[in-house]
Design a protein that fits this description.
Elements: H1 30-52, E1 59-60, H2 61-68, H3 72-84, E2 88-94, E3 104-109, E4 115-121, E5 125-131, E6 137-144, H4 151-166, E7 174-181, E8 185-186, E9 191-192, H5 206-214, E10 218-222, H6 223-228, E11 237-242, E12 246-252, E13 255-256, H7 287-296, H8 300-318, E14 322-326, H9 328-332, H10 334-348, E15 358-361, H11 366-380
Parallel strand pairs: 4-7, 7-10, 11-14, 14-15
Antiparallel strand pairs: 1-3, 2-3, 4-5, 5-6, 8-9, 11-12, 12-13
Helix pairs in contact: 1-3, 2-3, 4-5, 7-8, 8-10
The chain binds zinc ion (ZN).
Length: 381
């Protein structure tokens, strides 16, 4: 099951983020009309969320009123609108045990009614996926990238692939594009800052550049933050990435954490050894530098131990209860990393039995799926 970010989890500055209403179907002029439209969207979203999380065979209007706290009259109006828009469909009837009267009509989500796109911009590859309303992947493409090359041609290619994937859907059926990329970046203005290993991308206004090329609402997010939002999990959890770099995405108290400049989770640049190897960030002995140097020398066990120390620091600092491990390097050979992390947690936590940490493996598409979930949030949050 896939979980989706809540309203406050949308990247700040995104079209639907709180305080920046804009393109979510608001109509009419003036503050009053805007507020009414926003309220309508919010109630529609609450109903859509309730339908999405209901049993597969559907849910009744009575149940929807109970789950959302909206009146029967409001539910009747909203479901009529969502049926007319093709987002919901009637899916048979159910008779409730012990109740007389006519059986209740069941409503179900129409997964293919809208699509959302999610892209992962990596240092060597661009991945683009299309998902339906349930978050299921319905199409995907992969394109190699030259990290030393100019961004323009890569973005042109991304726009061409977006057009290709969405050509058979009307423009109004495409919710938007979530774009996950390596940090550091500022998700508020969608600008990249000194991305390790991609010198020509520094200072690029990525969101605006992609929006101009695709005519879609674009939500930019750090790759690890997108990944931690790609699935349901406990309220305090982290996603840890090992690929061309090392990073983490954080959910604490049920809320995604981005920090003051939307740059939390630069986990790979914690210093493990002030006299260690020089890192691409300029500092010495960063976890990322130690891991990548060990991997280049073929010393996987050493890389695994460094990552495990970082993960143990993370658990001690933030008391997370679940760590999802992802990234191409780690997923290609997960066992040494999982073993090292279990060993370090068992030996370095003061009471590991009282503070258990679950380790899970991410799917290879966790990052683009998390990015697509941000675009789906335009409808559900
Ligand atoms: Zn560093």
């Amino acid at each position: 099951m896939t979980s989706y970010p809540g309203p406050r989890d949308l990247p700040p500055g995104s079209p639907d983020a709180p305080g920046t209403p804009g393109v979510s179907g608001a109509s009419g002029s003036g503050r009053g009309a805007l507020n009414l439209a926003l309220l309508r969207d919010r109630n529609d979203a609450a109903v859509l969320r309730a339908v999405r999380s209901a049993a597969e065979n559907g849910t009744s209007r009575v149940e929807l009123a109970n789950r959302t706290g909206l009146t029967a009259q409001a539910i009747s109006k909203i479901t009529a609108r969502l049926l007319a828009e093709g987002l919901l469909t009637e899916a048979g009837r159910e008779r409730v045990a012990g109740q007389t009267g006519k059986p209740r009509t069941l409503l179900r989500l129409v997964p293919q009614a809208r699509v959302a796109l999610g892209a992962e911009l990596g240092r060597h590859e661009l991945r683009l996926i299309q998902v339906d309303l349930t978050g299921a992947v319905t199409a995907q493409t992969r394109t190699p990238i030259d990290p030393d090359g100019e961004p323009g041609p890569v973005l042109d290619r991304l726009a061409a692939q977006v057009r290709e994937l969405t050509a058979r859907h009307g423009a109004d059926r495409v919710l938007g594009l979530g774009l996950a990329c390596p940090g550091p970046l500022d998700t508020r203005d969608g600008i990249l800052h000194q991305v390790t290993g991609m010198p020509r991308w520094h200072g690029l206004p990525l969101r605006d550049a992609v929006q101009a090329r695709t005519d879609l609402p674009v939500l930019v997010e750090k790759n690890t933050t997108a990944a931690v939002l790609s699935r349901l999990g406990p309220e305090n959890r982290a996603f840890v990435y090992l690929g061309d770099g090392v990073g983490a995405g954080l959910v604490l108290g049920g809320r995604v954490q981005r920090g003051a400049r939307t740059n939390a989770g630069e986990f790979g640049h914690q210093c493990l050894d002030p006299a260690g190897p020089r890192c691409a960030c300029g500092a010495r002995g960063c976890l990322e530098a130690i891991c990548l140097a060990a991997l280049r020398a073929g010393r996987t066990a050493e890389a695994a131990t460094a990552l495990a120390l970082g993960v143990t620091n993370l658990v001690r600092l933030l008391d997370v209860e679940e760590i999802t491990l992802g990234g191409p390097t780690l997923l290609a050979d997960p066992t040494p990393y999982e073993t090292a992390i279990r060993t370090e947690l068992a030996t370095r936590l003061p009471d590991p039995a009282w503070q258990p940490v679950t380790l899970t493996r991410a799917t290879p598409l966790a990052i683009p799926q998390g990015a697509a979930a941000l675009a789906l949030g335009r409808l559900f949050d």
